[in-house]
Amino acid sequence: MSDPAADYAARREGWRTMDLDAARRRVDALVPELNRHNRLYHELAAPEIDDREYDLLFRELEVLEQRFPDLRRADSPTARVGGAPVDKLPPFEHRVPMLSLGNAFSADELVEFDERCKRFLGDDAPAVIRYVVEPKLDGLAMELVYQDGRLVAAGTRGDGQTGETVTHTVRTIRTVPLRLDPAGDPPPTLSVRGEVLFELAGFEAMNAAREARGEKLYENPRNTAAGTIRQLDPGPASRRPLLFMAHSAGEGIDAPAHSVLLQRIARLGFQINPHNRVCEGIEQVVAAIEEIGRLRHDLPYEIDGAVVKVDDTALQDALGFVTRSPRWATAYKYPPDRVQTPLDDVEYSVGRTGVLTPVAKLSPVRVGGVTVRNATLHNEHQMQRSMRVFDQAAGAARVDADGDELRTGLRHGDVVVLQRAGDVIPQVLGVIDAPDRETRPLHAFPSTCPVCGHEVVREENPKEPDKVSIRCPNRLGCRAQLEAALRHFVSRRAMDVEGLGEKLVTQLVDEELVARPSDLYALEARVLENLDRMGRKSADNLVDALQQSKARPLDRAVFALGIPLVGEATARDLATAFGSIDGIMDADEAALLKVDGVGPDVARRVLEFFGDPRNREEIGLLKAAGVEFPEVEVHESAGEQPLTGMVAVITGTLPTMSRDEAKALLTAAGAKVTGSVSKKTSFLLAGEAAGSKLTKAQDLGVPIIDEAGMMRLLGGAALGEVADG
Ligand code: IVH
Fold it and tell me: pTM for this one?
């Protein structure tokens, strides 16, 4: 047996001493070999070498590329990782618009779709239409553009015309070919469309880890894929299990049929779905859709339906489009998955503001492709009064003589019906009826806080009796609320204290070093360095970070206080309306209600918060510790602004400012800025080289203004005075 460490050292020595010619030959062999192993691993799930061997080959390539940068190839697997972040996502114009699909929800509607196609084709309709049925991939729609066989750009769908350029993140996805396979005879320009998917197993593992750390769970794989791809930093995309699956082409391939197009795409190196089926006639389509429905939850990624496409390109062309969808294709949506499982218990989690949320603890069950153990029940009303009654999971809910659904509360020993419609957190729809149900006790809210034991209070809202909240009023005296308040206080959007993670917060509370946010500022490095996983260096860094956080702008410091219902936007509104922390603290109800974005509920919570002497004392302590709450200039914005109620769209290049700057000006003046022109648009702000949005505005008679017009509008001119024509 060889010694791995010695073996590695010897290999590394070889990489370090190789001359340029030898290195060139080696790189030219390594790149295709690594790409082949990538494909074997990620697409075919049939690796030929183990991870360590792969890592060694990869490391060798990295070393050679570092030594001889000229040898870096565009299709090198190293080009997928560690790219530089971009400043912002530039727009991505689709040369051929990305369309949407009509829907069918039943076999009957599929038959109608087939009949519609035949009617439209008239005499040209074949007796039996050939279709392709494909899983409808539930991911982020993406277009990849290749020039001379190389990936040059990747863009999201956006509004179908203009999306965002995300080449930097998409190129890190292993199943996105950076270079097309020459064996597939790549056209000079090609755009391929498909979906970016988040692999389910990786998604579940990521959420399980987050749950173990007490962090918020990602909602679903699709949004997480989208969030990962739309980041400026390609790092997370390169580390997460994303995959790209192709389902159509924008331009570059003329094929006589969709099935042929798919084969060509596959030969160029793209992954296409293995469950795509060619079907002769609509009966076969219905059967294929049922088959995909059965497979659905065993797939390693999410699908939300099936897509049916007319195969023959000539028939597609004859059928054409209705507004934004092709007549030759439709999407079939599967009903959401329902299962039943025993309710083991109801536990209560205590949030940052003390609200107790009931959480159903379930016998683990798979629903919609994920394993579920918990489901939140929102509030007392939902738990005790709004559960439906089912005979069995898939059956209809029971109704009374008037046809209204029966409603009941959760009882000990119940079996519940769960539904998962797309988001990871499933809904508890109701309970399965049983003869002894009524004899078993209802699940009832505890009268004391499950964390600190303080008596809870009921907060009823006479206007919304369904929304009673039950709270532990013990604020910083309740461990759950204290930790949550501290985590919020130091979070990135609040005081942004780097290096103060959840585990450390827990430790600080455990060690009784911190009992409220202001205590953080008294922490000393010599005490911190004795904590677990802390050294002198990280202790010094943390003290520095805390020091820096004292100067955060007023709005963030206000947000950091964790006033119920006061999010970032409201904190900003309060800061600009009152200008100082004292101004906000002393505002009365009338003054608060004048602030944009503050309604009666928010005003009440703000008054309550600052009415509590403990909170006023804490603010005093924060100030004494050096937190600046820097004052800001007050904008007399209260009430109407010049553009309140207006909906604006911006297009083209403006003469003196970026579109983002124009958007900021319009938003500050009270307008809403949206991405597409419709009848509701109040005006279009058009610059140089405006395209389809300008035409659409003209068609709809939407007023069009230029930058100078906008400036006059902001100065108080009327829209009629500044619009063209
Ligand atoms: S074909 C005009 N095929 O669904 C043809 N689309 O509702 C439309 N989608 O934005 C594209 N799986 O991103 C096609 N197998 C599939 C698909 C699929 C998912 C998405 C696609 C499109 C949306 C349309």
Answer: 0.62
Does 708 lie in the same domain as 688? Answer: yes
What atom in ligand 1 is closest to the CA of residue 276? 15
- 356-390: pLDDT as tens digits: 999 999 999 988 777 888 898 988 888 888 899 99
Same domain, 108 and 156: yes
Query: Please, are residues 425 and 413 in contact by the beta-carbon 8 Å criterion?
Result: no
Distance in Å, CA 100 to ligand 1 centroid: 7
Q: Tell how far the Cα of 224 is from the centroid of ligand 1, in angstroms.
A: 19
* DSSP, residue by residue, 550-583: TT--HHHHHHHTT-TT--HHHHHHHHHHH-SHHH
Domain stop point among 333, 359, 383: 333
Do strands 672-674 and 647-651 pair parallel, antiparallel, or not at all (unpaired)?
parallel
**CB atoms closer than 10 angstroms to residue 670:** 16
User: CB of 594 within 8 A of CB of 606?
Assistant: no
In angstroms, the CA 707 to CA 686 distance is: 8
Give the three-state DSSP class for 472. coil
The atom of ligand 1 lying closest to the CA of 331 is: 7
Residues 432 and 445 in one domain: yes
Residue 311 lies in a domain: yes
Mark whether 17 and 114 lie in a shared domain.
Answer: no
Active site residues: 136
The answer for residues whose C-beta is within 8 angstroms of residue 395's C-beta and 6 or more apart is none
Q: Compute, in angstroms, the gap from residue 247 CA to the centroid of ligand 1.
A: 7
Same domain, 202 and 245: yes
Out of 22, 46, 80, pick the residue that ends a domain. 80
Q: Which domain holds residue 564?
A: 479-624
Q: Distances from the Cα of 638 to the Cαs of 76, 634, 662, 668, 669, in angstroms? A: 57, 10, 22, 12, 12
Give the pLDDT confidence of 503-558 residue by residue, as tens digits: 899 999 999 999 999 999 999 999 999 988 888 999 999 999 999 999 999 999 99
Which of 99, 101, 278, 324 most suits a substitution to test ligand 1, by most atoms within 8 Å of the C-beta? 101
Pocket of ligand 1 (CB under 6 A): 98-101, 134, 136-137, 141, 157, 195, 247-248, 307, 326, 329, 331
317 lies in the same domain as 352: no
Q: Please state, in angstroms and rounded to a whole number, the distance separating the CA atoms of residues 213 and 551.
A: 30
Closest ligand 1 atom, residue 139 Cα = 19
What's the CA gap between 107 and 33, in Å, rounded? 47
Tell whether 123 and 272 lie within a shared domain.
Answer: yes
